[in-house]
Amino acid sequence: xxxxxxxxxxxxxxxxxxxxxxxxxxxxxxxxxxxxxxxxxxxxxxxxxxxxxxxxxxxxxxxxxxxxxxxxxxxxxxxxxxxxxxxxxxxx
Length: 92
Ligand code: SF4
Ligand code: SF4
Hints:
About 10% of the residues lie in helices and about 20% in strands.
């Protein structure tokens, strides 16, 4: 009967996980109606990839298009219905 199979260990292994560029998943993108937005930041709190910044100084909402995956959660959670999803045109 054969003994246990020997495995050759090649040395220390390291795996580096980098953040996926989830922006490439996007089919639609959020668009903010600046007349309705009150800069409350609720959309930012719910975004699963933390890609929304509320720029209160300039009174605008900024998205990191490298990570926004177009899931629509921000639009769903906005109490003022200030976000709608528009078709992605592929020009990040
Ligand atoms: S949740 Fe709506 S109103 Fe609040 S900052 Fe976001 S877009 Fe503006
Ligand atoms: S669509 Fe999704 S990923 Fe993009 S900003 Fe809104 S909540 Fe974040």
